[in-house]
Design a protein that fits this description.
Blueprint lengths: L1 E4 L5 E4 L4 H10 L9 E10 L11 E10 L4 H17 L5 E7 L3 H17 L6 H9 L11 H6 L9 H16 L5 E2 L11 E9 L7 E7 L3 H4 L7 E7 H10 L12 E5 L2 H16 L4 E3 L6 H10 L4 E5 L1 H6 L1 E6 L5 E5 H22 L1
Helix pairs in contact: 2-6
The chain binds histidyl-adenosine monophosphate.
Length: 364
Amino acid sequence: MYTFFDKGGRSLTLRPEGTAPTIRAFIENSMINDGLPQRFYYIGPMFRYERPQAGRLRQFHQFGVELIGSAEPFADVEVIQLAKSFLSSLGLSSYKIYLNSIGCPKCRTEYKNALKEYYSQHYEEICEDCKRRFELNVLRLLDCKKDIEIAQRAPKTVEYLCNDCREHYEKLKSILRSLNMPFEEDGNLVRGLDYYTRTVFEVKHDLLGAQSAILAGGRYDGLCKELGGPDLPALGFAAGIERLILAVKSEQLQIPQDSYCDIYVAPLDEQAVVKALEISDSLRKCGLSVIIDVNLRPIKIQLKRANKLNAAIAVIIGEDELLKKAVQVKNLLDQTQSEVEFGYAVDYILDVLKAVRTRNFEHT
Ligand code: HAM
């Protein structure tokens, strides 16, 4: 925890993660009344007083999601599927999803005893950190980067799952397989936070070295109750944005550019502006973001600006177009251009934009 005293002598702790705050906000605002399940996301700075190294920072940023109110393994699949499609949308491919089940408090007690028993036989061989973990949180012994062989031979959580936890885990794996979602089981994956139950998962990037976890999450079915709220199952994940950037760079991918607008409307003279304003308004009513050039600059400059703003389409209207009662619709990605009558312009632009977006998504 990043804890310090402020000038008033108060002890302050900066938030280390987003799951507990999300659940607290859910409880404090009685959001259960809006129906279940509910889905949330957050992006923001997090703070942990860790030993800094490449990919491990004291202030970093997370993007995370939480799904509250479902105990079904389908919800686990949805969350893992979302994680994967998010990573694919960045163009990443050199990563693996690791999966495990750490059971519920009931079956974990038996497991922890077995683990303690195992490690007590190896107590003299383990490192000082592990000796501390042995007393504080025996599950974390499996995370040790030094005593890897001892950890690998340790009893596995899945061997101690109760019937309900086993059924949940088997169902989850079978749905993932039927959806062709690649994953690897890692019997030593236990995660560093105490609230997890049943499913835990971690995405590791192949090119990042020691700090290779770019995204991680799992179920925490007891947390809502523990924080004073209703007894609700929940799960989610968070991704470290700095590590994602390292991963994108290591695969030599282009950082996807955000568009400032979908459509850039380019009127070429005063008569055309009125029609251009009308078309802009219709496009905005369809939910698109539209920038219209109100300074009537030469077409070359307007198109340069449209490209700079990363617009997908430019709509050009000049004297000729007004006479023909048509607009020029220019696809700025493949540079194709079509003349479309006023009456069909909005529908046509929507179709082109849909095609551009689908192609962009498939491309990533
Ligand atoms: P976490 O594994 O502690 O999980 O963090 C999630 C991700 O944040 C890590 O996989 C890593 O990419 C990034 N991260 C963590 N610590 C650092 C650091 N010191 N420097 C840079 N990046 C870091 C959680 O925080 C859970 N709240 C995830 C979750 C959401 N579980 C359920 N819902």
